[in-house]
Amino acid sequence: MTDLKDIDDAILIKPKDKNPLKDRDTECAGLFSDRDEAEALTQENAEAINALQDKLWAEGRRALLVVLQGIDTAGKDGTVRGVFNACGPLGVNVTAFGKPNEEELAHDYLWRVHRAVPKKGVIGVFNRSHYEDVLVVKVRELAPADAVEQRYEQINSFEQHLTENGVVVLKFMLHISKDEQRERLQDRLDKPHKHWKFNAGDLEDRKLWDDFQKAYETMLERCSTKHAPWRVVPADKKWRRNAIISSVVRGTLEDMAPDYPKADWNPDDFKIQ
Ligand code: AMP
Ligand code: MG
């Protein structure tokens, strides 16, 4: 059993950390060394997250936002499946952010994001997020460099605004190696039932691997704040990734300690005929 402090010692990025990505391991074999144990813990965590979410909903005062970022094949969809599989569809909202459509482009970049922030009582999961606006947008120069430069602080203020208004923000970067990405892309080519996941554009992004890593590094350096820190999750092994993320989500909800509200009436006063 690995406790949360050991996990955070390995994965939490502190506000002044230098090179938060460069020397970080995509494997971290010391965290959860046994696959069976990690999978059992993930399932146990998923059940606990479901029970806590029920209380979060009943209480109706706060929300939890889980941001998942990572390059193609990093395992964002798999994380949603692995960590939130015990939650009912009412309690968890998943939003995937792809290329902005015309209407979204007609607004500021945070517009579509703010609309998708979970309401009180709900767990929201972002599969990609506003961080694409300092990642792909920066690497592919989809906006002027000075506009992108301003976004780091804008994002920090936005997230501070959310946390001061009852939304707890958890951010996970799923960190895989270049070799692992090759294997996962190859797998999508080799297995017909995975062809639907293959996208030739992913190979174009792979050619820009170093640029994307650099953009991630800058994002982690500048947007890991006290109110909304980043965690870099070793994600070459799916079972380790799920054990880590489910443990942090569960631990965060336990710290929030939602509870069923006390009724201001007496059940003995009612008789059902
Ligand atoms: P996927 O997550 O595989 O469905 O792919 C979604 C695609 O949308 C990725 O290639 C992202 O880089 C891209 N994307 C997401 N957000 C933005 C954005 N704000 N601007 C441009 N492209 C984006
Ligand atoms: Mg993709």
Explain what you see.
The protein is built from eleven helices and five strands. The chain is an alpha/beta fold and 273 residues long. The chain has a single domain (4-257), classed as Rossmann fold, CATH 3.40.50.300. The model has no long low-confidence stretch (mean pLDDT 96). Bound molecules: adenosine monophosphate and magnesium ion. Magnesium ion (MG) binds at residues 72, 199, 202. Magnesium ion binds next to loops.
Rg, Å, rounded: 20 Å
Placed side by side, the strands forming the largest sheet appear as 2-3-1-4-5
Biggest β-sheet description: 5 strands, parallel
**Structural class, from secondary structure content?**
alpha/beta
CA-based shape: globular
The amount of beta strand, in percent, is: 5-15%
Q: What string, H for helix and E for strand, traces the elements in order?
A: HHEHEHHEHHEHHHEH
The CATH topology name reads: Rossmann fold
CATH architecture descriptor name? 3-Layer(aba) Sandwich
C-alpha termini separation: 51 Å
Small-molecule binders? adenosine monophosphate, magnesium ion
At the fourth level of CATH, the homologous superfamily is P-loop containing nucleotide triphosphate hydrolases
Number of domains: 1
* Number of H- or I-type helical stretches: 11
Helix content: 40-55%
E-strand count: 5
Low confidence ranges: none
Keywords:
Rossmann fold, alpha/beta, 11 helices, binds magnesium ion, 273 residues, globular
